[in-house]
Protein backbone atom coordinates (compact mmCIF):
# COMPACT_ATOMS: atom_id res chain seq x y z
CA UNK A 1 0.00 0.00 0.00
CA UNK A 2 1.45 3.40 -0.91
CA UNK A 3 2.17 5.56 2.12
CA UNK A 4 2.22 8.97 0.44
CA UNK A 5 -1.60 9.32 0.06
CA UNK A 6 -2.01 8.45 3.74
CA UNK A 7 0.55 11.08 4.72
CA UNK A 8 -1.23 13.64 2.52
CA UNK A 9 -4.58 12.77 4.11
CA UNK A 10 -3.19 13.17 7.62
CA UNK A 11 -1.66 16.55 6.74
CA UNK A 12 -4.96 17.69 5.19
CA UNK A 13 -6.92 16.54 8.27
CA UNK A 14 -4.46 18.29 10.58
CA UNK A 15 -4.63 21.62 8.80
CA UNK A 16 -8.40 21.40 8.41
CA UNK A 17 -8.77 20.75 12.14
CA UNK A 18 -6.46 23.64 12.90
CA UNK A 19 -8.41 26.05 10.68
CA UNK A 20 -11.63 24.82 12.29
CA UNK A 21 -10.14 25.53 15.72
CA UNK A 22 -9.17 29.05 14.59
CA UNK A 23 -12.65 29.68 13.23
CA UNK A 24 -14.32 28.45 16.44
CA UNK A 25 -11.96 30.53 18.57
CA UNK A 26 -12.61 33.62 16.43
CA UNK A 27 -16.37 33.14 16.88
CA UNK A 28 -15.92 32.63 20.63
CA UNK A 29 -13.84 35.81 20.94
CA UNK A 30 -16.13 38.05 18.84
CA UNK A 31 -19.45 36.82 20.27
CA UNK A 32 -20.79 35.54 23.55
CA UNK A 33 -21.62 32.21 21.85
CA UNK A 34 -19.36 29.23 22.59
CA UNK A 35 -19.44 27.15 19.39
CA UNK A 36 -18.60 23.48 19.16
CA UNK A 37 -18.10 21.34 16.07
CA UNK A 38 -19.29 17.76 16.64
CA UNK A 39 -18.95 18.38 20.36
CA UNK A 40 -15.33 19.53 20.00
CA UNK A 41 -14.21 22.99 21.07
CA UNK A 42 -11.27 25.00 19.75
CA UNK A 43 -8.77 23.40 22.14
CA UNK A 44 -9.96 19.89 21.27
CA UNK A 45 -9.57 20.61 17.56
CA UNK A 46 -6.09 22.05 18.16
CA UNK A 47 -5.01 18.88 19.98
CA UNK A 48 -6.56 16.75 17.22
CA UNK A 49 -4.65 18.77 14.61
CA UNK A 50 -1.41 18.26 16.52
CA UNK A 51 -2.02 14.50 16.67
CA UNK A 52 -2.72 14.32 12.91
CA UNK A 53 0.33 16.40 11.99
CA UNK A 54 2.69 14.56 14.33
CA UNK A 55 1.46 11.20 13.10
CA UNK A 56 2.00 12.24 9.48
CA UNK A 57 5.50 13.45 10.38
CA UNK A 58 6.30 10.16 12.10
CA UNK A 59 5.00 8.17 9.13
CA UNK A 60 7.03 10.26 6.68
CA UNK A 61 10.17 9.89 8.80
CA UNK A 62 9.67 6.13 9.04
CA UNK A 63 9.26 5.85 5.27
CA UNK A 64 12.34 8.00 4.70
CA UNK A 65 14.49 5.93 7.07
CA UNK A 66 13.25 2.71 5.49
CA UNK A 67 14.16 3.93 2.01
CA UNK A 68 17.65 4.87 3.19
CA UNK A 69 18.09 1.59 5.00
CA UNK A 70 17.42 -0.46 1.88
CA UNK A 71 19.99 1.32 -0.26
CA UNK A 72 22.64 1.40 2.44
CA UNK A 73 22.23 -2.28 3.18
CA UNK A 74 22.68 -3.01 -0.52
CA UNK A 75 25.87 -0.97 -0.51
CA UNK A 76 27.14 -2.84 2.53
CA UNK A 77 26.22 -6.18 0.96
CA UNK A 78 28.01 -5.24 -2.28
CA UNK A 79 31.06 -4.06 -0.32
CA UNK A 80 31.18 -7.33 1.63
CA UNK A 81 30.90 -9.34 -1.58
CA UNK A 82 33.70 -7.31 -3.19
CA UNK A 83 35.90 -7.82 -0.14
CA UNK A 84 35.32 -11.57 -0.22
CA UNK A 85 36.06 -11.68 -3.95
CA UNK A 86 39.29 -9.75 -3.43
CA UNK A 87 40.29 -12.06 -0.58
CA UNK A 88 39.58 -15.13 -2.71
CA UNK A 89 41.68 -13.70 -5.53
CA UNK A 90 44.59 -13.05 -3.15
CA UNK A 91 44.34 -16.57 -1.76
CA UNK A 92 44.28 -18.10 -5.25
CA UNK A 93 47.34 -16.06 -6.25
CA UNK A 94 49.17 -17.17 -3.10
CA UNK A 95 48.39 -20.83 -3.88
CA UNK A 96 49.62 -20.40 -7.45
CA UNK A 97 52.84 -18.80 -6.17
CA UNK A 98 53.38 -21.66 -3.72
CA UNK A 99 52.86 -24.20 -6.51
CA UNK A 100 55.32 -22.38 -8.75
CA UNK A 101 57.87 -22.30 -5.91
CA UNK A 102 57.32 -25.99 -5.26
CA UNK A 103 57.80 -26.85 -8.94
CA UNK A 104 60.87 -24.67 -9.17
CA UNK A 105 62.49 -26.15 -6.05
CA UNK A 106 61.85 -29.74 -7.24
CA UNK A 107 63.49 -28.87 -10.59
CA UNK A 108 66.48 -27.43 -8.73
CA UNK A 109 66.74 -30.55 -6.60
CA UNK A 110 66.53 -32.82 -9.65
CA UNK A 111 69.22 -30.88 -11.51
CA UNK A 112 71.49 -30.85 -8.45
CA UNK A 113 71.07 -34.61 -8.09
CA UNK A 114 71.93 -35.13 -11.73
CA UNK A 115 75.03 -33.00 -11.41
CA UNK A 116 76.04 -34.71 -8.16
CA UNK A 117 76.27 -38.19 -9.85
CA UNK A 118 79.75 -39.16 -10.81
CA UNK A 119 80.33 -38.99 -14.52
CA UNK A 120 82.38 -42.09 -14.91
CA UNK A 121 80.30 -44.55 -13.00
Could you describe the 3D structure shown?
The protein is an all-alpha fold. The protein has one domain. It contains two helices and no strands. It has helices at residues 4-30, 42-116. The N and C termini lie far apart (93 Å).
How many DSSP E strands?
0
Helix content: over 70%
Largest sheet: none
Structural class, by secondary structure, is mainly alpha
How would you sum up the global shape?
Answer: rod-shaped
Report low-confidence residues grouped into runs of 5 or more: none
Computed Rg: 39 Å
How many domains comprise the coordinates?
1
Termini separation:
93 Å
Beta-strand proportion: under 5%
Count of DSSP-assigned helices: 2
> Mean pLDDT score, rounded?
83
User: What series of H and E elements makes up the topology?
Assistant: HH
Amino acid sequence: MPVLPLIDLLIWLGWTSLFGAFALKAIAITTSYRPQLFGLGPMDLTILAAVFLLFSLALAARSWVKSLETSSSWVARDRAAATLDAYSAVQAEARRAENREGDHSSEVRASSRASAKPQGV
